[in-house]
Structures are given as C-alpha cells and as structure tokens.
Specification:
globular; two-stranded antiparallel ribbon; alpha/beta; five-stranded mixed β-sheet; about 190 residues
Length: about 190
C-alpha cells in the first residue's frame, strides 16, 4: 500500500486560496494525513534566493529554496513558500541526468505514448539564463498555448521530498528522512 507523507496544494490562484486553506485545515483532522498549502513564487534574479536567507533571523524552517513560516494571524494551517524557478531548475536537472547516474529522475519504462501528456507539460516552459546581484539563474517562461500543470506538480513533489528530508544519494535513489540506503545484494551462484 502506498501512502503520501506530505501533499502540497497550490494556493496561489487568488480565487481558490481560501478554499485550499480550508481543505488543508480539514485534512489535518485525518490521522496520518499531512497536507499543506503551497505558494510557488518566481523569485527572479534580483531577489535573494531562499537558500541564502539568514537562518538565525528568519522564523520558521528553511530548506532547499523553500520556507515554512510560523503560523500567521488568521491562518490555522502552516504553508510553504518556494522559489518556483529554482525548484523547476532542480527538477529539470534531475530529468536531464542520464539514467542510472546519481540524481537521475526517470519515468517507468513504457511506450512513449504512455508518457506523452506528462512530457508535453514538462517541456511547456523554456529557461533563459540571467544574471543578477545574487548570481546566475534560469528564468522560466511558459510557451504560448501549452499547459504546464504536471511540470508544476512534479516541481511540487520535489519540494515536498526536500521538506521531508530527501537528499540526492550516491546512487540514483532519492532517500527520505530516516530511510536507510538500500543494501547491496550479494551474488549467489549455484552449481
């Protein structure tokens, strides 16, 4: 049985923000279910990346281009803010890493038409390298008449895994918090 350790729900669309917070508040009542509203924001080259924020003076948790601030007035559910551009760049680097290399992310082996929709969404944005006061980064732009919903969803999944403590390992497996690396299997020969 598969379980979800953490679900992030996009709360950026103004018309649905309150509904997302209400649903996450209701979900908090279900034992073992952890769902948080998320706000993916493109920080751009002029804004200091979250990973460079002063951790001593920033309240809440800070991770790999994400921040979970303490509860604010009027909200009874914590949310996560993440740099959408840098998290998309992280995802695209994982997808561009050759199969079997450390840090690679792949889809299950199947006919290409099975993955056509997700491939269209993941390639719906293009990156332009720009330089600002905080270094070089990619700025992502949606190609006209293309949908990017699954790109945003996968980027959110990578962010959730980072929040849970996932890190790139020496192999091609991303480990979650508290998980041990898979043991190397012994080779046994008979006869």
């Amino acid at each position: 049985e598969l379980t979800i350790d953490l679900g992030l729900v996009d709360a950026n669309w103004g018309e649905s923000t309150d509904a997302v917070y209400a649903a996450c508040r209701q979900a908090a009542k279900v034992p073992g279910l952890r769902v948080m509203p998320s706000h993916g924001t493109p920080f751009g080259p002029a804004k200091k990346p979250i990973s460079r924020w002063d951790r001593k003076h920033t309240k809440g948790r800070i991770g790999d281009e994400w921040h979970i601030p303490p509860l604010s007035r009027g909200r009874v559910v914590q949310h996560v803010l993440f740099d959408a551009g840098r998290r998309k760049s992280f995802l695209q680097r994982r997808l561009a890493t050759p199969l079997g290399d450390p840090g690679s992310l792949t889809f299950f082996r199947e006919h290409s038409y099975t993955h056509r929709l997700i491939a269209e969404h993941v390639t719906a944005e293009t990156a332009a390298r720009v330089t600002g006061p905080h270094g070089e980064m990619s700025v992502w732009t949606l190609t006209p008449n293309r949908d990017n919903h699954w790109l945003d969803c996968l980027s959110g999944c990578c962010t959730a895994e980072s929040i849970l403590g996932g890190q790139l390992s020496a192999g091609n497996v991303i480990l979650g918090a508290g998980q041990a690396a898979p043991r190397k299997r012994r080779t046994v020969r008979f006869g």
